[in-house]
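Minutes, project check-in
Item: structure for the 149-residue chain
Input as provided by the requester:
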Amino acid sequence: MPFFMVATVENTDVLIEWQKKAIALFERKDYSRWFRTGMTGDNLVSYEVRRMGVETGPLLFGSITFMIIFVVTTSFRVNPLLSKPWEALVGCFIPLLAILGALGVMSVLEMRFQSIMVASLFLIIAVGVDDIFMLLRAWHRTSPLVSEG
């Protein structure tokens, strides 16, 4: 049984609160025994995306720190001449600079920062770290005896 509600932009918080209370009401055990309900809406989805962005934003700094520590420590080899911790550290800053550059361009163009973009920041870090490992592995497999020519 669909039920549609429409409100002005100023009243969207009222709709979100109404939807949350309706969900809480229908999830009570005495109702859930008789009814199977589900609720969705544009405002509820926007609210959840915004909540997710606010909750995961602070985790970004911890994941960046862990990423740098992990990449640099895994770049060490038994033979110290083959270790490349400085190259790994510089490689960690490439995705970070890409993030800062993209956010800077967005700020200059006065684009609004959407909460879902926090998830894309984690993806940029993940892809950047993957590239660092591939580059360091290729460098490690390259013969140092190859002459320039």
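Outcome recorded: The CA atoms of residues 99 and 120 lie 10 Å apart.
No further action items on this chain.
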